[in-house]
Amino acid sequence: MSAPIEVETPDELKYNFLPNISGQFQFRVRAANDAHIALTTEAAETDPMYEVFIGGWGNSKSIIRKNRSKPDVAEVPTPGILNAGEFRGFWVRWRNGTISVGNEGESQPFLSWTDSENIPISYVGICTGWGASGKWIIEESTPNSSTLSSKMCWIPASGGNVPPRAFVGGEDNGEPQYVIRANFQGGIIPGKLISSHGTAYVPWGGEENPVSEYEVLCDFNGTWVPSSEGKVPPNAPAAGETEESEPLFIGRVTHEGTITVGKIQPSHGVCYISYGGQELNFANYEVLVA
């Protein structure tokens, strides 16, 4: 792993840009107030652009802004969130139009907003201002560790609806099972959709959890390969992540006459499926690869 990048920013509100297509920006910053982060398509302040202000307005609140326009699209009180005498750690993540901001070591964001326009982010800019200079320690961002694959097309749906060209991953009683994922308990969890049930399901916490809103994998030309004990091939795209940001992969198993789609969690060494109200785990499974 590469050493962290150290950057000093003066009190001038001028962004320093770094390339970043990983889907996340992990950093620590020492500043009295106004640590600003820009998410852009180019290494410049051009529309479209998102901005995150941490500790703005005298270190009293944090906001998300689009295209430098007011009113701000999201705002939350964060008194004392920055400190001029010590480093404070944060993360910023972006995927499927959702921008989220959180504290280092915490999986839940304290600030988030979803844009209907899904802007492809290629650069991150940092700066300080309004009376504050800053020192930043920026961690290496690696797509394989915490970012979901850009090779996969996910279409939002709900209520058992199936978008056109949905990917069939299994079957249950002669009915197709579609590959889905859903936001659940702070993570993005792969699972299954059985349209006649009017809902999708994700395995989590020992239970089969129904989810009324989900994303369906579409337009995907993938194949299944056998594996076991948490192993996934290099060409297996990450499709979700746990609440601790561990990547999750799509797996399936044959169980009681069904071919049931679920999630592979490498650190647990198994593929989990939701079936009969329970979360079941299997050491042997198939992995979806690109």
From TrEMBL:
Farnesoic acid O-methyl transferase domain sequence ranges: 16-140
Coiled-coil features, chain-numbered ranges: none
Protein's UniProt name: C3 and PZP-like alpha-2-macroglobulin domain-containing protein 8
Species, as recorded: Agrilus planipennis
Gene designation: LOC108735903
